[in-house]
Amino acid sequence: MDGTDGTGSTRRGFIGGAAAVAATAAGTAALGGRAAAAAPRARPAAPGRRTGSGAPSVAVLGGGVAGLTAAHELAERGFRVTVYEKKAPGGKARSMDVPGSARGGRKPLPGEHGFRFIPGFYRNLPDTLRRIPFPGNANGCHGNLVASTEVMLARIGHEDVRLPFRSVGKPPPLLTPDALSRALTGFLDAFGNIPVHETAYFVSRLLVWLTSCDARRTGAWERTPWWEFIGSARMSPNYQRLLAIGITRNIVATKAEVASTKTVSTCIEAFLFNALGRGADGEPDRVLDAPTNEAWIDPWVAHLRSLGVAFEIGSAVRDLRIAGGRITEAVLQDPSGAKRSVTADHFVSAMPVEHARTTWNAQVRAADPQLARCDKLRTDWMTGIQFYLTEPTPILHGHVNHIDSPWSITSVGQAQYWSGRDFRADYGDGAAADCLSVDVSEWDRPGILYGKTAKQCTREEVAREVWAQMKAGLNDTGRTVLSDAKIHSWFLDPAVEIGGPRPVNDEQLLIHPTGTWHNRPSARTAIPNLFLCGDYVATDIDLATMEGANASARAAVNALLDESGSRAGRCAITPLYRAPELELPKADDAIRHGLGLPNAFDLG
Where are the transmembrane segments (predicted)? Predict the structure, then answer.
């Protein structure tokens, strides 16, 4: 055996890009292709025209990615749209000014709930980005996406794994189970320190998933924890840390022991196909070339206003009132406590599930049982903190997964991506030269400095603890990667209130324990003029992502168009890529599943 894949490329070289992609997936997908050409988008009947006073009215309740997407699609189709948002357009995807940080005519330092990450297997969100005009970009805001070139798994007391994104070479002409097995084995070889027999077992489990029919995926594998599916209990610590705990903690902010195999495997499959050049919009790991509001949200809001969309900011939705089987009004409350009602022909609920379900009173829930099932959906904390540094600190050109950190930390140095901007000259007081943006996914485990969970710490203690955990993984080789002396300041998401007896996070993340898929609602409700969108609404991506929010908004708009009898073109919804070569094994598995037999590759 010469270790080649039959095309002249080595197995390790062939899958080098996939290894980096998977490592990035283990560290960044919580926070979100075009192979030859994207699926054509259904054009609206009158794209770009201003809405008239006689057009049907729509109240979009929530101004995050889902709400702005719904407003965009509806406005292009001639509806009168008003977006009601409690905080600011963009929701969890927005960037925000650090209060009091600007000096000398500079912009405030940019803070955020968490760093943006837009992998190449997203297909619907990139389509929207292309349709948002941006000066100098032929492809609109999509032109502000830039690719990372490497990824790191930072270990504490172990050698860090640093993986470049390199060409995967010529991928196999057919994605047969054998070709996928060799590719996956090469991917695991790149990580190192995992016994050969464990590598073989993990590959066999992924082959089971890749060849499983949809019924088995939404049935048995949705009910099976990822930890159990990949046999973690009997494997080595490295296997458990890298392939079980690391992936689930950092992707879906949940625990391997309870995370749904369907959710985790769907994400891994999408990343794998992206790395192999199948069904992708672009490179596997992409970020924005400026703070999110500058590169995306502000241009989007400006474009929506040009289409006639109105925005009302500052009031929270408290109730939906129903009469005659239809929603008649939404009750809003401003910061002073004063309430008022707004009316519309149609209502699109685009709030996160933990907020949306508080607006569904008993009468609304009685009208559609799927709303009550949303009470079983769970959220958890996955929240960002930014460190502003006095010197550029390009740890690497990509994301760092601090794989052994108790708080499941991931980070990325942002200023290196912001081409055409001088961080020191453009932001803050002139002393900060870089922004290290960090996501914290685990808030209920003790840290290494204070022995307290993140929820038990003060904001200052959280900052010191996160910094210490990053240093533990990056400075353990004798080289000082992170220096205390270089810290200018830090900014923790203001949605978090900690340090007291009742910690609060107003912007949480949907998580995916086993069985929760069946409690996720559809975009259309049994109430004719109420539609749902958000990352909790069922879409094929499953994972709580900006892509899921975008796809669900398109589904909500299509349902609204159907209900209203509109002749406007429907929104195209591009599903995750399905390799045609695997459809025959899946069809065989459907027969086996119907007979009560295991998958053909499932050897236990």
Answer: none
